[in-house]
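Can't paste images in this forum, so I'm doing it all in text. The chain is below; anyone willing to post the predicted structure tokens underneath?
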Amino acid sequence: MEIFLNLRQKKKFDLIVSSMSFQWFKDLKKLFSHSFKLLKENGDLAFSIPINGTFKELIFSLKRSTNRKDIPVLKFPSKEKIKNSLLKSGFKILSIKEKIIKRYYPSCWSFMKRLKTTGTNFPSSKPLTPLELRDTINYYERFFKTDKGIYATWQILFVFARRPK
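Text version of the structure:
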């Protein structure tokens, strides 16, 4: 991600597009300010990003199944934080839409393996002990299992913004 923030271009871009990667940047204001500088006047920024509410069942299960008060859960940005960071960076927001997607998986384990293939890790910034992992999976499957399997919520924000003249 630092590669993008270190990108220096003499020519400006008409369009910057990102699908499900901006959540990995620690400082959204810095990311959007840099994107603003890379765009031509009337240049567009289009992106999708998971926001708070994504994987809420897994995060809930993690918090409830462990006895640790300090469990370091990864956090997704809020819609408001994204909007404010864009506006502070100088962008005009043309469209911002939130979509909640519920996906079903055969088991919690298959869901976590699927996350791994997308580059997403378990929603904890520190590794869990084998016991904590087992308890989290058991809790998840006990409370979020249906006849279709377990479900996971993806809360995605789709944004289209423009650098004004």
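Strands lie at 13-19, 39-50, 92-105, 145-146, 149-162. The domain at 2-162 is CATH 3.40.50.150 (Rossmann fold).
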